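Q: For a teaching session next week I want to show students how multiple molecules come together into a single three-dimensional assembly. I've collected the sequence lines for a complex. Could you give me the predicted structure tokens for the whole thing so I can convert them for display?
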Amino acid sequence: MKIVVNGAVRETTAAELTRLLEELGYGASVVSTAVNGEFVAVSARARTALADGDRIEVLAPMQGG
Amino acid sequence: MMLQLYQVALRSRLLLGTARYPSPALLAAAVRAARAEVVTVSLRRESGGERAGQAFWSLIRELGVRVLPNTAGCHTVKEAVTTAHMAREVFGTTWIKLEVIGEDDTLQPDVFGLTEAAAVLSGEGFEVFPYTTEDLVVAERLLAAGCRVLMPWGAPIGSGRGLNNLFGLTALRAHFPEVPLIIDAGLGVPSHAARALELGFDAVLINTAVAQARDPVQMAAAFAQAVEAGAAARLAGPIEPRDMAAPSTPLLGTAFRG
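A: Of course. Below is the structure for the complete assembly, covering every listed component.
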């Protein structure tokens, strides 16, 4: 299926969010996730099923003012 | 006197932003030179395998400072609320510097979206630091929404113009004597920060003025001194300005008179 990760279209076979993060190489990185504009907590990733067209945000700490 | 922000007591009245420094090493040195106890941080998109965010977060943790995550770049209530949720998880704090931007040239807050998002987040247990204007009615609404700290702008973010609307800011201070008020954004030089503290503001948040100075570490130290001077002056009770001269040397016994 086709999904959008951080604004870029990708093809994936991952059925849920945890698997997708592994597939994309996030490993043990501290990141936070949202699917279709809704926050998905770490504890909820494994049960968050992905569907064609989903928009996923993966955010990491950065400098800010 | 300590600065009290929500339940946290702080010695330093200088909060520092972490963006736009020439290098991570200079950022770390500037935080130390500022003697800052709170720094602002943010979230951004990161691809798998990229480690910039992780390195930054390690650096901040090593500094042992409290973090105030922001919702910079958010233009809607929905974006800001979701970003706050994401920040709470990553940074492990209920503090959130709430920004809902309404206008791109001035980065002026959308105060309607801001009050709405503040109510949502306060209701969810966040301790909201709203980036707002000096507008009294908006301030009242933010307090009613659950905010216990307000962060009025001095001038547009990054502009370095100082306290643009002195009358409005002074009125805000007078109107809410018990509310911690932090001047956020637009200060350019240490004298702006000293002025803010002299006027009774509780703290200032500085980023660009330090990060983009020729020597950010020296500028951080200069701001720290200015903030301390301003706070001490406020406690000491400044005199009122007057139009005519008032001789400082006693006139009694002046020679060659009478």
